[in-house]
Fold this sequence. Notes:
Strands 1-2-3-5-4 form a five-stranded antiparallel sheet. The chain is 30% helix and 21% strand. The longest helix is centred in the N-terminal third of the chain and has 18 residues, at 52-69. By secondary structure, the protein is α+β, with helices and mostly antiparallel strands. The chain has a single domain (19-147, 157-181), classed as Histidine kinase-like ATPase, C-terminal domain (Heat Shock Protein 90), CATH 3.30.565.10. Helix 1 (33-44) packs antiparallel against helix 2 (52-69) and helix 2 runs antiparallel to helix 3 (116-123).
Amino acid sequence: MDTPAEGRQRTSGTRQRATIMGSVTVPGRPEHVSGTRAFITRTLAGLSGVDCDAATLLTSELVTNAIQHTDSGGPGGTVTVVIIGVPGGILIEVVDDGSAGTPVVKGDLYAAEGHGLFLVQQLAAQWGYLRDPAGTTVWFHLVTADELDGADGPARPDTIDGYLAAATAVAACTPASSPEQMPATSSSQVT
């Protein structure tokens, strides 16, 4: 008679997996940024505990960066947004057509422009980028409210207004001026 080995048995459903919730590819033109915001809002509408406002804002910033600073903004260029449900949150990827430079977080909070990656750095639990010959993927991870409540360390604000206030306060008190001062979750250098 065969008996299962103790401790080796797997039961289905005990391990959560990542799920692609949706993706959209838009022309690399400024008038299409609003379409990506609507896509994020629609896709995340039924998902409990995820800050849809933060996801929408950060995606909009990254799509705008892709259009302004990469080949995606040129003739025939495109930007792709992918939303992935992961255990305890979501991962959003913005894929562009590539550029000569790498994503850079601006260190000057009072500059008239260039706050997109700074917002991503402040609002996301983690973020980074991957480059290959086809382009650059900038990604960020937002955790659910349940994960925030149970997390060790300082609590993150619950609303986008709270996020912006916290980001402004942190930047005013401890402006990052060198890569050594950047959080470990960042993949970019400060200029």
